[in-house]
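Our consortium's second objective concerns turning raw sequence data into structural hypotheses that experimental partners can test. To show how far this objective has progressed, the report includes one record in full. It was chosen at random from the queue rather than selected for favorable results. The single chain below, 214 residues long, was entered without modification.
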Amino acid sequence: MIKRKVALLVLLVTIFISCTSKKSFVNNSGSCKLYLYNDSLYTLKYPIFIGSRTEKGVYKISDNLLHLTRLSENLYDSIDYSVTYYPKYPDTLSFSFRNLNDSSVYVKFTINDYPIIYESDNFGILKLPYKDLFSNNVISNDSTFHLFNILFNNNTYQIKDKILNPSDINIKLNQFIGNKNAILYRKFTYVNDTITVNGLDRKAIGSDIKLIQK
């Protein structure tokens, strides 16, 4: 009877350990930690501008890639963008469109009050020569952009801002507007015992983006 109880206890402990066993990956500074559990769950802790952030979700490994998926409360702006102003007087204006998961997206959009509809390619890229923008009166001689209306996934996004002589405009669109939650993805390279965490905030994590299994 005692042997049976001991065997049962060992079995329960083994099951508990197997359910909670994990692989741990840490960068050199210890500021970023990733735990991969054997039940396909993960925990990722990484630095942000002030403090750190922890996210949890499910993972999948395939072809030297680690795919992370998580459900997040949709507190993201409907649209975000960054502008490059180099050189000072560019010949071409380049657009790049991506969604919250940093995937390229196809969009249609208009510029200022001009009625022509522009379209990106399937990689979310469009390059417009400034000479065409001038000749079509899309912009005036001062090269000012003040309005972009963007159509993506049957949703309309708008940028109202004064942008002068940009060379590149990189636009990120929230494909989950109107939804309470957002399904977000990350994709890292996973070779041997090293995971490279591209896509995290480089200002916070710096160049210390390689996580080594411990």
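The partners drew two points from this record. The longest strand covers residues 52-62. The chain has two domains: 24-74+179-213, 79-173. Both points have been shared with the crystallography group to help prioritize constructs.
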